[in-house]
Amino acid sequence: NRSPTAILEALASTVRNDVNQPIYSTIDDPFLYSTTDRVKKAHLAAYESGRKTAEHMLALYPDYFTQIWDDPLPDAWKKDSEYIYAEPCEDALNERITKRKVVEAIDMYRTIISNGEPLSQESQEKLLELLVVFNCKDPVEETDIGSYINAPDYRAFSPFPPCTWQKANAAEEVFDALPEKTASAYCQMIRGMSANYHKEGVLSMYNAMKANKMPVDVETYNAILKVASLDTETIDDVKLFVETILKDMAANNVKPNEKTFISAMVNLRRLSRWSGAKKFVLALFSEMKACGIEPGLSTYVQILHIFYYFKDRSSKTPELLEQVLDDLKGKEFECKTENDVQFFRSVMGMIAAHFPDSKLALRLHELLQYGKNRDLLSNRQAQYGYYSDLFTVIIPLEHIDVVMDLYKEVVPYIFFPNSETFKLILESIEMHEGHQYVSQLYTDLQWTSMFKDFDFLSRFTQTLAERKHEAKTQNELCMIASSLMDQWTRKQHLHDALPVNGVVIGNLIKTHLNNDDLKTAWSLF
């Protein structure tokens, strides 16, 4: 068996993939190229809004589009189409469950119950599953582009995440009315309460299952472990809770998986400032290895967050991080859990905060470039933060050739540095006499408004005028100086003119004098 795209993937593997390219939808229109993070967000948001508008028009007027395609529109596009079953009945309830219309399904359920009509156990459990997954609210549709643009929700890792489960809600109403309270129904309730940080309800349901000797599956045990640190006073309480659940799993012959140990480690991450958290997380890691479970990125990111807590600025050593990078070297990863996408962004932040070591940063970046690991830089905030920290670490410590190799790899379409990062690059150029790279910077800076900042413009022209270079490089610098002066001359009476003053013009004059071009220098004077 092979996937529908297997042949395309095979063909794609034969060509070099240069990811530093404009977004494919704008490739034929340079005016729409997205460079800075702000412009990229605006263009992607506009693209997403247009797609939603088109879907809305198709849903409102499906009959107008029948002549375009021979086949009828897919049901998924007919989001606002009428229901087949309008009257209260079990089929009407199942229809709303299938369409994920949570609020309408609740109303239909209550109408059926009030009419005294029977509902099957299966339909009621399907409704219960819908309610606990979406917390009794209509789901908010999220697309791939929306997920990339918007910041992720990190409430799960805060020390005290708020409980978002409302007591006596529709899910509890359906559960209480079930003809038979099966193990499946209990497990669904536990998962829903855990996802909304309702520890009291989770424990109540779990104790009821134990009292009735009902089987608990591994995903439900994982959900129970997630709430271990909520409403606890000491790390010893958390350890006791986690150990008790793991012993229950062993007693019931339920084999743990990676998510089991990640769920336990998340609690220690919430309490990473407490003494004992580091020792216990290493004990969990040893138990995980003893169970024959291969740790993934999610496991490592939880351990590293505990050892390198970002608010703890005390002296730290990088030995643990070096061991992790050794273990991961030459491996390609897929996104298996929601925490996998945090690894590269989080670890680069740790390097920048605790031990700015360019060799470590480049080792991590080498791992990112291996295979398809780059896909794990999930959203634009993570992508921007990763590269921002990477440049901040390596620019002062590495030769300008190394810095510019990385620069050419990601600028301007993947990442565009801010003005402070550009100033660091200019300092590195002066230190290592790498003025041959200035023309590359100038080309990319034309996409931005950074030259309208006087401090940046004066710093840039200072690099142009620093000293005399060999003929080719000096000619390039003079062309840049002339280009800047032409821009100012054309717009000097407009509001968006370059902020040129005597300091900037003095630097431009020096640049031309370094090229023995007295005529142009005198003209500027």
From TrEMBL:
GO terms for cellular component: mitochondrion. Residues 200-311 form the PROP1-like PPR domain. Pfam families: PPR_long, Rib_mS39_PPR. The keyword Metal-binding does not apply. Transmembrane segments: none annotated. Gene3D superfamilies: Tetratricopeptide repeat domain. It comes from the Eukaryota. One of its GO terms (biological process) is mitochondrial translation. Keywords: Mitochondrion, Repeat, Transit peptide. InterPro entries: PROP1-like_PPR_dom (IPR033443), PTCD3 (IPR037387), Rib_mS39_PPR (IPR055063), TPR-like_helical_dom_sf (IPR011990). It is found in: Mitochondrion. GO terms for molecular function: ribosomal small subunit binding; rRNA binding. This is PROP1-like PPR domain-containing protein. It comes from Elysia chlorotica (Eastern emerald elysia). The lineage of its organism: Eukaryota, Metazoa, Spiralia, Lophotrochozoa, Mollusca.
